[in-house]
Design brief:
Blueprint: E1 2-5, E2 15-21, E3 31-36, E4 38-44, E5 47-52, E6 56-61, E7 66-70, H1 75-89
Antiparallel strand pairs: 1-2, 2-3, 3-4, 5-6, 6-7
């Protein structure tokens, strides 16, 4: 499970949450889970592509929406976040 938020910011609160999900009783719920800002914005296998730059990560979702995360943390934390993205999204990441 991985994620990021701007919870320490004075601005409007946003977050992303992602991970690998396995549900043997409901296989249609298995895969890569991605959620942003509210559980109603969560779905399995909704991310089509992930683009990583030095200071940002963009998740391109089915339906055309994109969610961009900008670096505003120490480099060690940012590197850990990007490694989590690579681990979860694998081949979708470039």
């Amino acid at each position: 499970m991985g994620g990021a938020s701007n919870s320490k910011s004075l601005g409007r609160y946003h977050y992303v949450l992602f991970g690998i999900q396995s549900d043997i009783n409901h296989p249609e719920n298995s895969g890569t889970y991605f959620e942003f800002d509210d559980q109603s914005n969560g779905a399995t296998n909704s991310v089509q592509e992930v683009s990583m730059g030095d200071n940002s990560v963009t998740f391109k979702l089915q339906g055309g929406k994109s969610i961009e995360i900008d670096c505003d943390v120490p480099i060690k934390d940012w590197d850990e976040f990007k490694q989590g993205v690579r681990t979860v999204f694998g081949l979708l990441t470039h």
